[in-house]
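Appendix B. Extra example for self-study. Work through it before the problem class; the solution is given directly after the inputs so you can check yourself.
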Amino acid sequence: MENTTTAKKILIIEDEVILLDLLTKKLSREGYEVKTAQNGKEGMLMMAKEVPDLVLTDIVMPEKNGFAVIAEMKQSELLKNVPIIIISNSGQPVDFDKARGLGVFDWLIKTEFDPQKVVEKVKQVLTRASQ
Amino acid sequence: MKNQNFSATNNQEFEEVAKTLIRRDFELNRIKEKQESDLVELDRIAKMLVRRDLEISRLQEQREAELREIEANASDLEETKAALMNILNDVEEERKKAEAERDKTLIIIKNFADGLLLIELGTIVLFNPQASEFFALAEGEAVGKKVNQFVGQPLGNILELTQKKDRQVFRQEFTINDNLILEVSIVCVGGANLCSGGQLVILHDITREKVIERLKTEFVSIAAHQLRTPLSAIKWTLSMLAGGEVGKITNDQKELLDKTYRSNERMIGLVNDLLNTARIEEGKFLAKLIKHDFIKIVNEIVIPFGKEVEKKGLLFEYQKPAEAAPSVEVDAEKISLAIQNILDNSLHYTKTGGIKVSLTFDKQPNEFLLTVADSGMGISQKEQLRIFSKFFRASSAVKMETEGSGLGLFIAKNIVEAHGGKIWFESEEGKGTTLYFTLPAGGLAGKRFK
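Solution. Structure tokens for the complete assembly:
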């Protein structure tokens, strides 16, 4: 990202370390400031310290799952407008409908996306959110 | 004077004799007359006796005739009695047979694994022990009761079906509680729609099947989901490596990485097929249906597909409606998957010739028709019925290609049908296959998966 003054902050919540690493590498290289958490509880603590510009979260995780994270964010004045992209393999159609109802921007199924596509989606969502 | 005296005396005697004679004559006459009248009387009596004799002999003859008749009647009666006895014996035998049959039927009904109820004119007339067990209701608490006495109870919900206009039910599922799921069928006894002999309600316990089915589906779903995580890691790693994001790579290395990537994609495809099949069976397949431009959805799949076909050296043709068509309510991702599966299947088995895809819209009956015609290997007549079955692969296809899960068309069919569409095909071995599917436009005509 050519934006040198204020790099956009992205929080990734994902319990699968290898995926977390790959995404961090990919997004950092794109110029984003990436923070990571390995479960929902950790993710919420991170957001309490600093409000991110975008959240990428898995759904099935220990401690606190992705839906609980989203629900808590929607309750918080500070976090309710932060765009959310779900990255998960466990999506059931009912979950997609539920996520859409919660105002989630996108749902990426990991096996169907390359990290490059994730980057494109992140760019797209951040542009949409800043408009 | 003596003579005179004499003469006078004689005269007196003569007179006396004459008088006597006259008296005798009278007497004789009287006797004669009496005899004559007696004779007349005798004659009358004799005649009367003759008449009596005649009368008696006539009566005798009559009596004899009557006796003969009675005798004849008696033997007739004897015969009738014997015949009746025979009939009675037969009836008795039949009755015994019928009783034996009834006992047999009762034993079957009492020991039948399915619950059985017979409803006649809205009243329960038979309630077997299995039905008692299902509803924790003694036979005596059910038999003789009206169907509507059970409203609000699980039994009542089932019995309500017997009062519906369509009086027969085929395998409708009912969840009684967490541990009991019944499959209910109702059949008319005597005359398909009149139900003159009542309605037989058959309750088949499918709890175990359901549990096994759920476990199997859950197993596939979890297994598939668990497989997807490492597959994503492999996919992402290979993609970054091949993209030179973690250091420069040679062409040979890139080629190997690309091949591995494609193998991994195939694996992902198989896992997705399994996952989709499990979801279809779980009934959790379709997301909310949203209005879409169907022509656009088809274009997005068919245009890149055409390039793939041409890359294989085959001919490709695509026809689509020239005018705008109404929108359709679909789960776009799933309907795309169905189209993709149909196209992939066609390309997979076409080695020469080409593929023609055409999309048309018919105002009457307001539906789209997608046709995919190929000049591939086709499918033999005897295997045609199974083309949409799960895990089915044509024997000719197996010989040619080992790849393929046999789930693609099963999934496609389920998606199309869940959108209210129809899917079918025509095929000739060695000449090719044409597959058709329709999709109703303007609101959802079809049913959704639960």
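Self-check: The first strand of chain B starts at residue 115 and ends at 120. If your reasoning did not lead you there, revisit section 3.
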